[in-house]
Amino acid sequence: MQRRQFIRGVAGGIAATAFSGLIGRPAFAAAGECIVPWASDTKMIKREAKSGPFNIALSNSYIGNTWRTEMVQIAKAYTERDEVKPLIKSFQATSSGNEVSAQIAQMNQMILSGVDAIILNAASPTGLNSVIDQAADAGILVVSFDNVVTTDNAVTVNQDQYEMGKQWADFVVDKTGGNGNILMVRGVAGTFVDQERTRAANDVFGKHPDIKTTEIYGNWDDGTAQKVTANALASGTKFDGVWSQGGDTGVVRAFQQAGLDIPPIAGEAENGFRKLASELKFPMLSIGQSPALSALSIMVALDILQGKETPQSVSAPLPTATTDTLKSGENFFPELPDSFFTPISIPVCGLDFTAEQILKQKV
């Protein structure tokens, strides 16, 4: 898959290893279960151990949606845990916006301040490589997550967007019997995430000649997705299933407003989407990029700073829920806004958070 080849090119290969006795990780996170290599050939890295506590900085680009806000809040909540706090001398989180030059300036300030590690959600996969190389020359560790970078001087932590798109498509095929009209609600045109998820869906749907797809762009936004879905429904086409990258609450509401039965929908993990699935009981598969990737990235950084052998590219699990597995207060939250992003925990790593713990953090 291109996605896996891309990450291998970024960070080499990797082999599973055991981790035990680390401060900052609960004992019940068993060896090999949490920090998982991206692929069987991803290389391992090991640095000379440094003495803590450590100065950690989170360099974020865009901050204008719920996911990014929760991501920063979770990072702060993690650094305040009793088992992590002794390792943290200082933690700072700043957001630069989507201008590469602004994030470069932000990271230069972090380098000058002498931090031990920078946790990075990048504005560009390539535009920050030079400043990351400067950080490496200064002995500063960079762990890149979510929107990852392409220099070998960064460790990467991410979830597999191709696999996410594939699982959505497999669900739709299963629920429709491999035939009928499928509405594909894409994300932001031209982005890597949209392209990888869509490539996976087309690989699956292409094996079923009785499936016909209609593609629209919802921009991962409820309002936009509701509008374009309503337009598609107004054409008179009966859709037997929906494959949606985001804005899923809006997709469901468009079917409701049209007075139509809601078909099986595979989509992201917005709270509103899961609340509606719980209420209306339509077949649903919800998989989302976890904002807890920030906490996992800090965990990885602390391992490396303590001299532990670690994969250079880490694969995080995909948090999944179906209509049958929805649990109020655990994987959806009736009292919270529709925009709240629900996969706030990575249980296999002991990264369990409550909505209350997250929302009390100031950004």
TrEMBL record:
An MF annotation (GO) of this entry: carbohydrate binding
Presence of keyword tRNA-binding: no
Chloroplast listed as a keyword: no
Domain Periplasmic binding protein: residue ranges: 56-309
Main location group: other
Alphabetically ordered keywords of this record: Signal
Compartments in which it is found: Cell envelope
Pfam families: Peripla_BP_4
GO cellular-component term (any): cell envelope
Domain of life assignment: Bacteria
SUPFAM superfamilies from the UniProt entry: Periplasmic binding protein-like I (SSF53822)
Signal peptide: 1-29
The family this protein is said to belong to: Belongs to the bacterial solute-binding protein 2 family.
Name listed for the protein in its UniProt record: Substrate-binding domain-containing protein
